[in-house]
Design goal:
2 domains; binds flavin mononucleotide; alpha/beta; four-stranded antiparallel β-sheet
Length: about 400
């Protein structure tokens, strides 16, 4: 394998050993956690959100729920967890300790104060003096904190994002990133407000407000805390499409580094974020489910991918996919795809394509001797049959 220094990545003024960072969450809940993450090979970490000692943080139990596939694999994860359980003085000492042991990694302190920007400024000064490389403003936690006027209550209000960013930026020298909530109609508005306030970059996204499921026997939404529940934050593979969409929107409208977050589990997921404009990615749920060790395969895979595509750095991938993103009305109407059986041996005549096309499409497919026959005159080229085919027997030809 090529040396991992090949993955050196630029994040604004900071340099990462690789573009894989631990997001602010349980895997960065203590010094010991972060040290183990760095030993496994993560390029950076964002500390679980630090808050003034006076802000009462009492977690509930249980605080997680999951949506799993038929094989038990994780599709989506919901949490109603709050912020760091450690004191400010714990992190003051801890930041120094991590810095000393891993001077080559990027350590970002996520912070949240009360509704008064002064408390954010004080906390920002403290974590800066302790030695963190950058600060991330958590204005995006979707549960609990908005009820106290912070978290997403700030992130959903662009003037407040602007005011808070401006206050913190003027009180510190280190770069200030602002973490966006996806729970807003147009995420570019708070992102632009943060940029106008002097942010060094944007982190996107925090978790997506959700109810992960309902117990149909007791009628109670998950997770049940002594019989009651609350709206939580959704994360993991299910939110990757939301994260990708939001990152592309932000990268397409402001010229600042973006840390892409949401459903990253593999190096391929990370490449997708980089192609849509992210400079680096942050990972939470995949580590909670599979451990810090997943970064080894992420590093290995990205090194091979860069070599295969002829790139010398992850930086060269940044935004390449944005060139192929345009307004719907600008998309070509001159091309039609035509479904064809590309591998007849794979088709077992299950008929899924026929049913999908009959009830969700144009009635263009019938089975003859257990093989799909496509009527080109009826086919509208929507592509549904190819997606529902479980065996991969159907492919697409492009008609001009
Ligand atoms: C249990 C849990 C706790 C989290 N705590 C925080 C937090 O303290 N601060 C923060 O900014 N984001 C927090 N997050 C959000 C993550 O940092 C991340 O934005 C989100 O989970 C999406 O990434 P993922 O799909 O890789 O998990 C938390 C997420 C989870 C699942």
């Amino acid at each position: 394998m090529t040396d991992q220094s090949d993955l050196t990545t630029t994040l604004g003024k900071l340099t990462l050993k690789n573009p894989f960072m631990l997001a602010s969450a349980p895997p960065t809940a203590s010094v010991e956690h972060i040290l183990r993450g760095f030993r496994a090979g993560w390029g950076g970490a964002v500390i679980k959100t630090i808050h003034p000692d006076g802000m009462a943080i009492r977690d509930v139990s249980p605080r997680f729920a999951a949506w799993k596939g038929a094989g038990g694999e994780l599709l989506g994860f919901e949490n109603i967890e709050l912020l760091s359980k450690k004191s400010v003085s714990y992190w003051e000492a801890g930041i120094g300790q991590i810095r000393e042991e891993f001077p080559d990694r990027i350590l970002i302190a996520s912070i949240m104060g009360d509704p008064d920007p002064k408390s954010w400024q004080e906390l920002a000064g403290t974590v800066q003096d302790a030695g963190c490389d950058a600060i991330e403003l958590n204005v995006s936690c979707p549960h609990g904190m908005p009820e106290a006027g912070v978290g997403a209550a700030i992130g959903q209000n662009p003037p407040l994002v602007n005011q808070l960013t401006r206050s913190v930026v003027k009180s510190v020298k280190v770069p200030v990133y602002v973490k966006m909530t996806p729970n807003i109609t147009d995420i570019t508005l708070p992102a632009k407000a943060a940029a106008a306030g002097g942010a060094a970059g944007i982190s996107a996204i925090n978790s997506v407000q959700s109810l992960c499921g309902v117990d149909i026997e007791t009628f109670g939404p998950h997770p049940s805390v002594d019989g009651m529940s609350t709206h939580g934050g959704y994360s993991g593979p299910a939110i990757k499409p939301i994260g990708l969409g939001r990152v592309a929107a932000i990268a397409g409208c402001i010229d600042l580094p973006v840390m892409g977050i949401g459903g990253v589990s593999t190096w391929q997921d990370a490449v997708e974020y980089l192609l849509l404009g992210a400079s680096a990615v942050q990972v939470c749920t995949a580590v909670m489910w599979n451990g810090y060790g997943i970064v080894k395969e992420m590093n290995r895979g990205l090194v091979s991918y860069l070599a295969w595509k002829g790139f010398s750095s992850p930086d060269e991938l940044r935004g390449l996919g944005l060139r192929q993103l345009t307004a719907h009305q600008s998309l070509s109407r001159d091309v039609r795809i035509r479904p064809v059986i590309t591998d007849a041996k794979k088709c077992d005549g299950c008929g899924r394509c026929v049913v999908a096309c009959r009830d969700g499409g144009y009635g263009a497919i019938r089975l003859v001797k257990k093989k799909p026959i496509i009527d080109p005159a009826a086919c509208d080229g929507c592509g549904l049959c190819i997606l529902v085919c479980p065996s991969g027997a159907l492919g697409a030809l492009e008609d001009q």
